Amino acid sequence: MKNRIIILLAVFLSVTFFKCENDDTIVSPLPGGIYDFTSFDENGDKLVEGVFSVLYNDSKTFKGSWEFKAVGNLDNPRPQAGTGELLGEIDENDLVVIDLNPGWRDNNAYLTGKFENGSFKGDWSWVGFTGIQEKGTFTAKEK
Fold first, then answer.
1. In degrees rounded to 5, what are phi and psi of residue 29?
2. Exposed, middle or buried by CB within 10 Å (0-12, 13-18, 19+), for 96?
């Protein structure tokens, strides 16, 4: 009987230890999932709408994809319109930075902001070799 209790205790502790060591739960300030996205120019006019996804690699980096469509005044450039893959990271202050054109040295579109009260809000910028070409704000809400 004593041996049976020791064996059961050993199995219980092993399972508990294994579970703790292999817990894949990622706690992050921007929840993984799909987001509805809208961006605005510096005057507050709507530029693009669409969706993007967030899939975590670890607690501070993620990847995903995006699909945005130009709306509103179509005379302005739409650096964010189209589809693509994204890479993102979260810094020590919970600031989220998403690169919509990873791997490019020019024609980069970035989303920088914070997730609060169910919304991811911040600034977007379109950056070329000569610096910021266009900028504005955005909002994204979990679907």
1. -70, -15
2. buried
Cα 85 to Cα 108: distance, rounded to the nearest angstrom: 12
Residue 82's DSSP bridge partners are: 68
CA 20/CA 86 separation, integer angstroms = 31
CA–CA gap between residue 88 and residue 58 (Å, rounded): 11
Q: What is the pLDDT of residue 53?
A: 94
Kindly tell me the sign of the dihedral angle through the C-alpha atoms of 4, 5, 8, 10: negative
Model confidence at 29, pLDDT cuts 50, 70, 90, reads: low
pTM, two decimals, is 0.74
CA-CA distance, 10 to 118, in Å (whole number)?
43
